[in-house]
Write a structure and sequence with these properties.
By secondary structure, this protein is of the alpha/beta class. The protein is 55% helix and 10% strand.
């Protein structure tokens, strides 16, 4: 049976409205790249000439074609997990085929994506506000940028669905402005159209001694491609594909126009000139800065929301501690993670104060996202092979894009000492936490002990009917780790029978089965002992939060309506008055004691785990349980026997274990 979902916005349906909404959600990051790409390319070579600019624009056109259009729009968007995209959704899709090491590619890709997402709001907003310097050179860029970023992160807690409805129309006019402004300058240097010929890109990279700086700058034009894939679930493949045609045309026109203007004015350009604003008529400049600022905010909003989704998925894929998640609106997929929001805000402010100008941020930008793209390529190759695509197609695909992204990575490595270290440091921190959490959970599961549940049917029934044992609750609910209804954890049996025998009318074993699909939420109800012992198995997708209390309430209502569960109180006086039965929840915390294990690696991993678990919330809060009727029982995870722990039944890895 299914558990009900909240409403969906419907933006994923292919329609004119869907196309408009897609412009506002998907293309903010890649759509603000013209703010800084050509300026960065100018700074990559001291003595640039017309051939250099033509070659650089050619690199941009063919990067947008190969990297964004071919890899992401054509190939990656077809690799959807029940309509959802992004590197973690892709990992959930391919891990079914037991490629255990692929989790490393997933956590590296997710970590670098979040790290680069921290610098994106900073560079886009700073680049936009720097346009005001063309009007007044004394414009306080840093304070204005910090104020805008602060307001942006502050409003996250209220949800952005209402504001989001305005994003699409605005971005339509933003891209139209890009195309028009670029077109106005094409006639100044028509040979710029040679950039459509890839020969000029190849010639530039083959002969320019600073080719690595050029590639590092060119790569910035495609940094939003990974976000494009991640937003697949919000907008749908057809909406993204069709709207990309319009977006790409407008972007290329703007890059061509900037290139033509640079060549025409090559002898008069100062170091602080941004060709993006230079191609605007003077009377339009303030409007252009305003539109650029709003576009930067929209791009930042998309990346912030994307980071919320990444951490939400990471939790359910067993990569991150449980986090407090709020839903400020009833729009499906829109969530707010306070701890992530605060972290992103703090590091965005640090980024602004550390680098101060967009020029210095550009030196740090793009390095980590290149690694994300490489990891996506690896996972895509496995996905294509998994879907029986011929190797003579998969191997060239893999070779081509690993080569392209390898070159981009090599070029961006030169940014490391100029600021790239900052995003790599952040990515390394995220990656370490994910790696330790994932492996520590596997270690914890290794020591879980299971036994056949039918062996305990008689004694559980006897406890229920033994009036000499004080009644513990009408309905006693245990959080179960057993993936099979035929088994039960030894710690649960110990709690019922030995640790103060617990008499109840109903014993419920509640189990979350985390699956590799994004939005699945349904359950099965299995009576194990008639009117006494039951198992509830909830299948939950990696984008759905495990709110146990909420789901249990709906499940019980369904069962009572069907007549398969008696909700009446087990206390005679209360039952006569028609009072519903009480519920008490037992959560077992398994404590890991290093002294009980002689495995050095396990002890090291668990010691680090003990530190990072404080990043999240405890299991009771994560499950949404009312602490007034929750009992937490602490037991040792390992019971040492003759120098070795005993494991009765091997079970699949659970999604999360308690502390």
């Amino acid at each position: 049976m299914a558990i009900k979902f909240d409403k969906c916005s419907g933006a994923s349906k292919f329609s004119a409205l869907g196309l408009l909404v897609t412009l506002g959600i998907v293309f903010g990051d890649i759509g603000t790249s013209p703010l800084y790409v050509m300026k960065t390319i100018m700074h990559a070579s001291e003595g640039y000439d017309a051939n250099y600019i033509i070659g650089a624009v050619s690199c941009i056109i063919w990067t947008l074609t190969l990297q964004t259009t071919v890899k992401y729009v054509i190939v990656a968007l077809s690799a959807d997990n029940k309509g959802e995209g992004g590197i973690l959704a892709l990992y959930a899709l391919v891990r079914k085929h037991n490629r255990k090491w692929l989790y490393v590619a997933a956590i590296i890709g997710a970590s670098t994506l979040v790290a680069d997402g921290i610098i994106t709001p900073s560079i886009t907003v700073t680049s936009a506000i720097e346009g005001l310097k063309a009007v007044n050179d004394a414009t306080p860029v840093v304070p204005i940028t910090i104020a805008i970023i602060s307001a942006l992160f502050f409003i996250q807690q209220f949800g952005t669905s209402a504001i989001g409805k305005l994003f699409g129309p605005f971005m339509f006019f933003w891209f139209l402005m890009l195309g028009v402004m670029g077109s106005l300058h094409l006639a100044e240097f028509l040979p710029i159209l040679k950039a459509f010929n890839p020969y000029y890109a190849i010639r530039l990279l083959a002969h320019d001694p600073n080719w690595f700086l050029v590639l590092g700058a060119v790569f910035l034009c495609t940094t939003g491609a990974e976000a494009l894939y991640s937003d697949l679930g919000h907008c749908g493949r057809r909406n993204i594909t069709v709207s990309w045609i319009y977006v790409k045309i407008m972007l290329i026109l703007n890059y061509l126009g900037q290139g033509a203007w640079i060549v025409e004015n090559i002898k008069h350009i100062g170091d602080d000139v941004n060709p993006f604003y230079a191609i605007m008529p003077t009377q339009f400049l303030l409007i252009g800065v305003f539109m650029a600022t709003i576009a930067a905010v929209i791009a930042s909003q998309a990346l912030i929301s994307g980071c919320f989704t990444i951490f939400s998925e990471a939790v359910n894929l067993n990569f991150w501690p449980r986090l407090k998640i709020k839903y400020p609106t009833n729009v499906k997929g829109q969530l707010f993670v306070p701890s992530v929001n605060n972290f992103l805000y703090i590091f965005c402010i640090i980024t602004i104060l550390l680098f101060k100008t967009s020029g210095r941020m550009e030196a740090a930008y793009g390095l980590s996202i290149t690694i994300t793209m490489l990891m996506t390529t690896i996972l895509l190759a496995f996905y294509l092979h998994m879907h029986k695509i011929k190797l003579f197609i998969v191997i060239p695909f893999f070779a081509v894009f690993v080569t392209i992204e390898g070159l981009f990575l090599t070029a961006n490595m030169f940014k490391f000492i100029h600021g790239g270290w900052f995003t790599i440091m952040l990515a390394g921190t995220f990656c370490t936490i994910m790696y330790v959490w994932y492996n520590a959970q596997n270690i914890r599961h290794k020591y879980l002990v299971f036994d056949k549940i039918h062996k305990y049917f008689d004694i559980i029934s006897s406890i229920k009917n033994d009036t000499t044992i004080p009644k513990y609750a009408t309905n006693l609910v245990y959080v179960s780790r057993s993936d099979s209804p035929e088994y039960i954890e030894g710690k649960v049996i110990y709690s019922i029978i030995h640790k103060q025998p617990k008499r109840a009318d109903h014993y419920l074993l509640f189990h979350f089965e985390h699956i590799d699909e994004p939005n699945t939420l349904d359950y099965t109800f299995t009576p194990l002992i008639e009117d006494t012992l039951f198992r509830i198995n909830v299948r939950i997708g990696f984008r759905v939060q495990p709110y146990m209390t909420l789901y249990l309430r709906q499940i019980i209502e369904d069962l009572v309506h069907e007549g398969t569960f008696d909700l009446s109180s087990g206390y005679t006086s209360l039952k006569k008055k028609g009072v519903s039965g009480d519920f008490r929840f037992i959560v077992i915390h398994r404590i890991y004691y290093p002294a009980s294990s002689d495995r050095g690696r396990d002890n090291l991993m668990m010691n680090i785990y003990g530190l990072i678990k404080h990043l999240g919330i405890n299991e009771e809060k994560a499950l949404g349980l009312d602490t007034s009727n929750v009992v937490v029982e602490k037991v040792p995870l390992i019971v040492k026997r003759n120098g070795n722990s005993r494991r009765i039944v091997p079970m699949p890895t659970p999604t999360e274990d308690s502390e």
